[in-house]
Structures are given as C-alpha cells and as structure tokens.
Inverse folding.
C-alpha cells in the first residue's frame, strides 16, 4: 500500500482538503485553518527527517571497517 513519503503526501493532501472544506463550511476561520495546515506539514516533515536520519545512521553502522 502506501509507505514512506507516499503516505506523508497522502496525509498532507487529505488534511488540506479537510481544512478547505471546514473553512468553506464556516467551521473554522480560513487563517486558522491555514496555520494548522502549516503546523501539520512541519510535523510531517520532522517525522520524515527523523526517519531519514535513522536510516542513514543504520547504514553507516552496517559498513565493514576497512582493513589497513
């Protein structure tokens, strides 16, 4: 199914559509919906960055030491 960055992009699209629908229906002010969307995108970005750092550190630990 969806994993990694594809799941993040799907989540951002769904939250964006929900924010537009909520502000159009008058449930939330448009500026507040935009601010909440920006916070959500930053949160997802931080999660992706932490996952990238974790994968990068794991690959460095699996390397064999050079024999000099």
């Amino acid at each position: 199914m969806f994993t990694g960055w594809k799941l993040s992009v799907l989540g951002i699209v769904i939250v964006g559509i929900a924010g537009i629908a909520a502000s159009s229906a008058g449930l939330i002010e448009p500026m507040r919906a935009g601010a909440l969307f920006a916070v959500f995108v930053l949160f997802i970005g931080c999660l992706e960055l932490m996952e990238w750092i974790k994968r990068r550190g794991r690959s460095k630990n699996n390397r064999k030491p050079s024999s000099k």
